[in-house]
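Hello everyone,

My group is preparing for a crystallization screen and wants a predicted model to guide construct design. The compound we'll soak is pyridoxal-5'-phosphate. Before spending weeks at the bench, it would help to have a computed complex in hand. I've included the protein sequence and the ligand's SMILES below. Output in structure-token form would be ideal because that's what our pipeline reads.
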Amino acid sequence: MLFRDQLQKNLDAVIWRIEQARITVSEHHIVKLVAVGKYTDIDAIALLYDLGQRAFGENQVQQLEERCKLLQELPLEWHFIGTLQKNKINKLIDTKPSLMQSIDSVALALEMDEKLARKNSRMNCLLQVNSAKETSKSGVTPEEAIDIYQEIAERCRHINLRGVMTIGAHSEDRAIVQKSFETTHHIYEFLQKSGATICSMGMSGDFELAIGCGSNLVRVGSALFGE
Ligand SMILES: *Cc1c(COP(=O)(O)O)cnc(C)c1O
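Reply:
Good plan to model first. Here are the tokens for the complex, ready for your pipeline.
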């Protein structure tokens, strides 16, 4: 099969699965799809754009920078979804991502804020929650998430906090994965009073479950770009 046809098939399948899941929540529940390009090349991203996809996510600053530059003539929306090293903050700011989804500490937020101030810039961000407290994952613990969110909102004038992001628990047990999404969604519900509008949860293997728990942004890689 031609790669374009394969991509079209994958995109249709993912959109259909999102549709089935969101409709069980409410017909008014809108879910945004961010296509994660880390397993694929720039040609596949351009093809997916051609098929109608606009929002793309990268987990490495270097890759984000290269792809933004190479595809700058396309009206794409870029999301940064990876762990951010402090020495890459300036580089990330210069790519002007539409949403940085992975603030994982007050220290990182403060350093980003300082650098944003110096560049007279602002950034839309999410706070990453380590919802199952896994040592392999970045993010703040669920217990401290609300306090940290509010501290960043108060102290970092150049960061616009828009909500929360989590990666579901790494488990074969759906109940454990569901619990991790519910934990993050509870935090999100509380933070809606402080203006949060984005609850980013769900990847290729678990996005229907995440949507069922209230996610309104899914980050999908392999289900789109895999064979
Ligand atoms: C890789 C990645 C994804 C997409 O993963 P798939 O399972 O391929 O859909 C989503 N979110 C983050 C933070 C990632 O690093």
